[in-house]
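Methods — Computational structure assignment.
A single polypeptide chain was analysed. Its primary sequence is given first, followed by the predicted tertiary structure written as structure tokens.
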Amino acid sequence: MKIKSIPLVLICTLARSKLLTGTILFSMLNVSAFCQANRYYPKADPHKFQAEITVPLWLPWIKGTAGVDGLLKDVQGDINATPGKLLNKLKGTIMLNADVSKGGFVGFVNYMHIKLGTENTIAELPLGGTATWSDEIKNDILDIAAGGRLRFNKGMIDLFVGVRYFNLGNSLEVSDGISSKTGSDNVDFWDPMLGARLFYYPKDRIMLFLRTDFGGIWGGSSQFSWNLEGKVGYTISPTVDIAGGFRSYSFKYAEYTSDTRIFYMDPHMYGFEVSVSFMIPKRSNNAGVFPKKKTANK
């Protein structure tokens, strides 16, 4: 059987065809890899470790009562303050939040420090009459939690458990015009807590946020504590987010000796909050999400 020779032109044509096919496949792989690397995630790439630092500013209304040992028994005093009065009486405040996440894992630490004095108010004495009452309170509250992140089409839900640390200080003075009594105390304790967070993105750069958590039960030291937040956020750049909304926070603590209450504090704080967040590392600079400004032709 005689094998006919293949024309050189056909060999060259087949070689060019295979080379072209390989080039196209290689280009498609590169484009796919580039698109994957350049994909925009509102909370950054879930396949990598991501950190987020948030600095909130919260000026709440405060309502509640407080007391310490060494004072007239059962003297009840308010620690009410409006945001305007809070600015005048505020002696120190720090708030800082830090989050880490990867895939289905999320963890965070939230810290809040508030120290303020109240205006002189009138307190009723147990045996009748009134006295001038003033108070200075200090709250240091630290949340440490971890949990799982569940993703859906336009957002995610975090379910978490953790602990909440309280360091509470109270200094109180009562004067009836003839004599005065002062007392101060400081307590610290840990509480278990559990809660959930919702992040929803109707648009790539618009966020709706909701968080709620509860503590002070299941063997905790405080009688009860709870936190509720709702915010609307906007992504300024691949690194920076801003948000604003409303927060309500409350806890109740009392310490007794021989059935006598010697330290108590039960503030309810609520008000508007704004915050700025920083993503580390930054998110993808996707041109579809962050369009580049057009420069005018000279």
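Note: The chain has two domains: 10-38, 46-280.
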